[in-house]
# Entry
Amino acid sequence: MRNLTLLTDLYQLTMGQGYFNEGKHEQRAVFDVFFRPNRLITYSVAAGMEQAAEYLENLHFSEDDLAYLRTLGMFSEDYLACLKDLRFTGDVRAVREGEIVFPYEPIFTVSAPMLEAQLAETALLTFINHQTLIASKAAKICAAAGGGVMEFGLRRAQGADAGIYGARAAIIGGCVGTSNVYAGKLFGVPVSGTMAHSWVMNFPSELEAFRAYANSFPTGCLLLVDTYDTLRSGVPNAITVFRELREKGYEPVGIRLDSGDLAYLSKKAREMLDEAGFDRAIICASGDLDETLIRSLKEQGARIDTWGVGTKLITSADMPALGGVYKLAAVFENGREVPKIKLSDTTEKITNPGVKEVYRIYDKKTDKALADLIVRAGETIDEEKPLTIFHPVDTWKKMTIEHFRVRSLREDLFRGGKRVAPARSLSGIAAYRREEQARFWEEYLRQDMPHIYKVDLSDGLYRLKQRLVESFGSHGGSVPCSDCTAKGM
# Structure
């Protein structure tokens, strides 16, 4: 396990020095990870929590780390001595990987001594922002394709880690395999891939190239047919080799199209394969695909069975950053919670203060998700009584729900610095994502003009937020919380 403690911004360390000087480094603090909405976010798939947990488990400054920090000439020796002994001792509540999440919801909450919590910010955001972004992009691509998507993006990823953990996130989002062999070994997921155009070009003829490949892989023969001319040479030569394979007792897998008019070529190739008796041979398509192009191809009647998606998935080309943030929600003074709030001229950037919990509300009859409710820690929802929720800004927009069940979206990941939630298999995480995504009406998840899923605040949290906003001028962003209990989360 790599020691990534210095995977941080310098200002985390300088603030740490300041907290140490002011005697605040051991003060209990609560930070929330959440993301704000934009026009491209309809929903997101939470990911990266496993790597975040591994980071916290291994949080420590090595002698080399401290020696490097000493060369910066910025930090006192007593502060560096404090860092030498630093380990994560706090609590974490987080959504499970694969959870369907929405803007403003705290998906990862750290409650720890201020120095520990502050130092963790940059690395936690690195893991969660990136993998949530790619998992969400994958989910949208896979929804458009209806399944059968393979992640092919390693060569276009922004670095090795982005390729490795992007592949992991893509599997969470719904991809059935990856071309990334290292990720396949590391995470135990299926790997896929056959040949490149260079293979075909390296033989005297396309037919000889196909024959050579079939000889090496008779049980897994999928041929790339667009190196020269897809319909006049590629598909006919593939059919010739497929017949030779069948005579030897093998069945071909299929063909891959990587360029050209994929709708037209796939339809013509399907006709040719079927007429030749290879109706079970699949057609795989690749080449700068994303959910928009895949939807268009399907609308055009393309006969494509599986999809290889690379660049636009691994880079999330239309939205290259999630924009998740890590904001202070509360500190504890003498065991009592003091909620904190960040104000802004932009209403959407005002944070939700205090220690919170998140509930998802399901219709009992359909088991479909109706809304999410962010509440103050300790608040409960009575499933036996009608529940009225309201828009957190336009409060006149209200809805009363009856015959529902609720579920807490988050679980304890750490208590007292010890991990308490199990590490889950990648296949198990992907299965959980499928199950939970199926509990949403299609209207909430569609790409074009989706119905906005409700994420509301409880009456108690709304009143606390309004009180803090109104008192900001005289209290500097926080007010003592007279009814907060002395608990750390």
